[in-house]
Amino acid sequence: MKNKRLIWTLVFLAILTLGSIGTDLFKKEHQNANRVVKVGILQFVTHEALDQIEKGVEDGLKEAGYKGDKVQITLLNAEGDQSKIQTMSKQLVNDKNDVVIGIATPAAQGLAAATKDIPVIMGAISDPVGAKLVKNLKHPEGNVTGTSNQVPIKQTVELVKSLTPNAKTIGILYASSEDNSKSQVESFKKYAEKDGLNVVEYAVPSTNEINTTMSVMTGKVDAIWTPQDNTIASAFSTVVSQANQAKIPVYTTVDTMVKEGGLASVAQSQYELGKATARSAVKVLKGKKVKDVPVDVIDDGTPTLNLKVAQDLNITIPENVLKQSDIAVKADK
C-alpha cells in the first residue's frame, strides 16, 4: 500500500513538474513572440545610392514581419566622418541591438571593430575580404556576414567598348583611402588592358582634390570610369560637371549615378541590395548563427543608360545594347 502511495505521489509530482515546464516554455515563447527586436543601422554618408540601400533594408525587414511595435530601428549617419564612425559604432553596440547593419565599407568596418559578440550585417560591401571583414565568404568565421555586391567589371569593360569604341585611354577616378575601390581598380585594369585599352589611375585622398584632379584628367583621357566609391559618390556632381564641359563620358557602377549624369553603368539596384541585406539580418534574428549564413554575393547587373547624356555627347547607342538595357534618363525629343 505504501509503495502504491509513493508511486502515485511521484507520478503527481512528475505531472506538476512537466506542467510547470510546459507553462514556462509557453511563457517564454509568448515573450519571444512579443519581444521588440532592436536593429541598429550605421550609414557612412548621405547619398542616393546608400539611401536606397537603407530603404531596402527597412522594407525587407517589414516584409519579414519586423515592423510597427515589433521592431525598434536606430539609424545613425556618420556623414563621411571617420571619428563619427567610431563613436556611432560604439553607441549602437552599447544600445544592445540584436543585430547591427553597416551600409558602406567604412560603416561595416567600424561596427566590426566595436563588437565581436553582436552580429554585424554588411550592407552591400564590394570587397569584404579585402576590407578584412571576412576571410571566407561561404563560411564567415566571426560575427560578420551580409551582402557583397561584386561590381560586374568584365561586363562594364564590354559596355565601354560597345558605346565608345574610339575611346583608347580610360581614366579611373577613385579614393586612395577606400580599400574596396583599390580591388575594383585592379580588376578593371586587368580586363581593360586585356582588351587593348590604356588605363590611367587618378587617386584622390578626399573630395577636396576631385575638382583639381578632374581638370588634369579631362585633358588626358577619352572616358572616365568610377568604381563603387563613397568619396567619389558624395562629390559626383563635380565629376559630371567637369566631364560634360570637356565632352567626356563618365561610366559608373551605380544606377542612381547614371541618373545624376553618368553615361552608363552595368548596375545593380541599390534598393534590392538593401533588401538582400535585410534577408541576411532576418536569418540571424530568427536564430541562425552567423557562421551558418554565407555572405550573399551578387555579381551580375543590367546595363543602365542615360540617353540624354548620350545625345549631348553625340554617342549612338547600338540597338543590341539598347534592347537589353534599363533607361535611367530619356533623350530630349
From TrEMBL:
Top-level taxonomic group: Bacteria
Transmembrane segments: none
UniProt-listed InterPro entries: ABC_SBP_TrpX-like, ABC_transpt-TYRBP-like, Peripla_BP_I
Gene3D superfamilies noted in UniProt: 3.40.50.2300
Name the UniProt record assigns to this protein: Tryptophan ABC transporter substrate-binding protein
